[in-house]
Amino acid sequence: MSEGRDDEVDAGTDVDADATGGTDVETANNVEAAIDATRDVVVIGGGPAGCSAAVFVARYGLDAVVFDRGPAALRRCAYLENYLGFPAGIDVDTFHELIHEHVERAGCALRSELVEAVERVEDDGPTPDDARFVVETDEGRRVAAAYVIAAAWYDGSYLRTLDDDAMFEEHEHHGELEERFDPEYPDEDGRTPFEGLYVASPAGQRSAQAIVAAGNGAHVARCLLEDHRIARGYPEGVATEYDWLRRDGEFSGEWAERDRWREWFENEAGEDHDLDDDRLEELRERYIDRAFETRLTDAEAESRADGGVERLVDVLGPERVLDAIDDATIEKYAEGSRDAR
Predict the structure, then answer these.
(1) Which of 262, 277, 296 is the last residue of a domain?
(2) Strand, coil or helix: what is 217?
(3) Judging by DSSP bridges, how do beta strands 115-120 and 133-137 pair with one another?
(4) What is the pTM assigned to this prediction?
(5) Do 169 and 253 reside in the same domain of the chain?
(6) Which molecular-function annotations from GO does this UniProt entry contain (predicted)?
(7) In whole angstroms, what is the distance from residue 60 CA to residue 11 CA?
């Protein structure tokens, strides 16, 4: 299993038939079926919560896949008007195109398959050492993963196979009793009694609006990453992950020197850990390397800004962009371009 960009190890291996001709690995859990892929993270649900979570774990460097097919709450929305960044709103189909493109751009696989079951992996099973779960889809695909993020608002029945009745509650709907996933089952950070299982949706009122759901998905993913880093030895004081690109000017003065970062790390890490000096030094240097990787010059930031606009136009489609601009503006721009030559 990959440890993210902190460690130079191989990412999870996808051995599904599409990619490699169908190499099989026998599963655990006493189920006679083949594992088609191994991933660090499986995200179930490709709406705002699931896609937001996927972007964060993938940008960190974990090997992730999003399964997205099934009842979707946002599809019931006629037009999305309160999502920050779209002053006049955005149609739901285009919004989904954009968030799915973002997921794939971050390095996460996206599959249109319905998850039917999540199973626990037996400790003595022959699946990869770090795999805790096997996720099965309606296409018969079985994926082993260390982490599962549930992010499907309407349907949590795929978690029934974990055999914990506390996950579900009965409620009355149109005069009939129905069973549904209990949004109070995970804690406020999405953690559950099952190590490695996180819930980004359903999450009560945090699932009620698209932008809030996206924020909750990001929060749950950051909690997963914090747990992941602690499991790999990072002291709690330096385990929180910040996905933030810094301007070159922030690495000036004393903060341009690694020794200043080393001092900061040791102060934040404290002494409440059982790491030996060599391991602590290794983690400290990785942390500092990662911090310096977030450094962007003005030219690099400008290049990314241009690339971001170009990619946005690619996803929307140049024709749609041109259709939204009046002819006089296009003609004026074309004349300016000719004059510049």
Answers:
(1) 296
(2) helix
(3) antiparallel
(4) 0.88
(5) no
(6) oxidoreductase activity
(7) 12
